[in-house]
Amino acid sequence: MNGWPAFRSAWRALTANPMRSLLTMLGIIIGVAAVITMIAVGSGAQQRVESQIKALGSNIMLVLSGSQSASGVRLGAQSGPWLSEMDASAIAAEVPEVQAVAPSSRTGSQVVFGNTNWNTFIFGTTPQYHEVRDWPVVEGREFEAAEMQGSGKVALLGQTVAQQLFGDNDPIGQTIRVKQVPFTVIGIMGRKGQNALGQDQDDVVIVPISTFRNRILGTSYGRLKRVGTINVKVAEGYSMALATEHVRELMRQRRRLQPGQEDDFSVRSLSEMLQAQEDSSRVMTILLASVACVSLIVGGIGIMNIMLVSVTERTREIGLRMAVGARSRDILSQFLIEATLLSMTGGAVGVLLGGLATMGVAWWAQWPVALSVNAVLLAVGFSAAVGVFFGYYPARRAAALLPIEALRHE
Question: Could you give the percent of the chain with pLDDT greater than 90?
Answer without folding.
Answer: 28
